[in-house]
Amino acid sequence: MRILLVDDNKTNLGFLTKLVEKLPGCVPLPYQAPDAVLADMPGLDFDIGIIDFQMPVYNGIELMTEIARFEKYRDKPIVFVTADTDTATRMSALNAGAIDFLTKPVNPLEFLARVRNLIALVEARNKLTDRAEWLRTEVEKAVREIREREEEIIERLMIAASYKDSETARHTKRVAAYSEAIALEYGLSKEFAADIRLASPMHDIGKVAIPDAVLLKKGKLTEQEFAAMQTHTIVGCDILKESKSSLLKLAAEIAGSHHERWDGQGYPRRLAAEEIPLVGRIVAIADNFDALTTSRPYKEAWSVERTVHHIVERAGSQFDPVCVDAFKRALPAILSIMLNNLERDVMAEPTDETIAIAKSAAA
Question: What range does the domain containing 325 cover?
Answer without folding.
Answer: 164-362
